[in-house]
């Protein structure tokens, strides 16, 4: 399995909107972190769809090593 690129060693705080879909970058290559911009092509990774059920702030993983995708679980502290 491929290893993702670490985009940053902290989460991205994002205000999400109820009813909207977000596509979290799994590969770490996207220039529009934490979301996909298509840079994963040929990497073996695909983005993860997240559907927001409510307006809230989420902390999307920046290191791409979370065990609770797409949200940060503190894995960046162990890298």
From TrEMBL:
UniProt KW keywords: 2Fe-2S, Iron, Iron-sulfur, Metal-binding
GO MF annotation terms: 2 iron, 2 sulfur cluster binding; metal ion binding
Pfam families on file: zf-CDGSH (PF09360)
GO cellular component: cytoplasm
Domain of life: Bacteria
Stretches assigned to the Iron-binding zinc finger CDGSH type domain: 9-46, 47-78
InterPro entries found in the cross-reference section: CISD, FeS-contain_CDGSH-typ, MitoNEET_CISD
Name the record gives this protein: Iron-binding zinc finger CDGSH type
